[in-house]
Amino acid sequence: MKIVRESVEKKIGLAVIGYKSEAEIPRCIDPFIGHVDTVIYGGGKFDFYDDEEYYDDVDFAEKRYKDKVEFIGYKYSGRQVDKRQKYMDIAGERKLDFLIVMDTDDFIMPEYSDWNKFYTNLVNVSDVVEDRVYYMHIWIPSVKQWSKQGNAFKSNVWCKSAKIFKDPGTMRHCMHSHFMWCDKRISDKKMIQWQMKHREEPNKYQFSARIAIDGVRCSLDRTLRTKEQVKKGKTWARLNQHAENSRQYYLVAEAYGYPAPTGYTWKTWESKPHTFSKDGRRVEL
Which residue stretches of the chain are H helix? Predict the structure, then answer.
């Protein structure tokens, strides 16, 4: 997108991930066409989501957008953080200055679609602060419109969600978390070691959002999903949260030098097939 400020152009991308999301893709992506340079769409199921391999939504998105915008589709089934990291890496390959990230149940609110204001705010703010992650305002609707998957948000309120990333190609998801980011050159071990010495301080290596960029706002809607998708999504969200928490524990345990279960390293223990009980206990498979 040619955002011109003092003769400087910024290249903007949109990244979306989904699974069997043909019904939601137009609502999510269509409003961005003409306002971003690149659309990245990743299809495939997450670990712990009980369903088949499926990538037809990637083909659907490519057919819909390939003649309207630079479109890059990818197919990946696996951990959520790995699937999300792929769009960060693609953003780097395409030399994007900023990346806006959406899931297919996100959509732009028509009454909050001032793109000129949004991009002016983004460029002006990013010129004077060193932040790498920015919030967007997001309306949390009723449970009837957006069935929650373990989300602790209240309904019918405005919240802020980290959705805008500056220089995304140099960033990675860290600490096995889908909502933590750092520079690609920084290891999880280094982050943990620093935190051990500065327990009461925010981790200096973590990129955290502080500022909301206004002008364009979004909301959420899961009513286009089948009852089966909603049910499976709730089960997956619980298992995924347990998985991310356990992986973080293994990282910290390794950093502290705690012994892994007999016959394993922490890495091989994490990769051993398992699931979780409803109360979060690991169950071997």
Answer: 25-29, 56-65, 80-93, 115-128, 188-197, 227-256, 266-271
CA dist 222 and 232 (Å) reads: 13
For 116, phi then psi, to 5°, come to -65, -45
Other Cβ atoms closer than 10 A to 25: 21
Closest by CA to 92, choosing from 153, 171, 206, is 171
Tens digits of per-residue pLDDT, 145-203? 999 887 778 999 999 999 999 999 999 999 999 999 999 999 999 999 999 999 999 99
* DSSP symbol at 212: B
Q: CA-based Rg of the chain, rounded to a whole angstrom?
A: 19
| 3-class DSSP state of 125 | helix
98-117 pLDDT per residue, tens: 999 999 999 999 999 999 99
Residues 6+ apart with CB under 8 A from 179: 162
Contact 37, 70 (CB under 8 A): yes
CB neighbours (10 Å) of residue 171?
Answer: 22
The residue among 182, 172, 174 whose CA lies nearest residue 251 is 174
Pairwise CA distance, residues 107 & 217, whole Å: 9
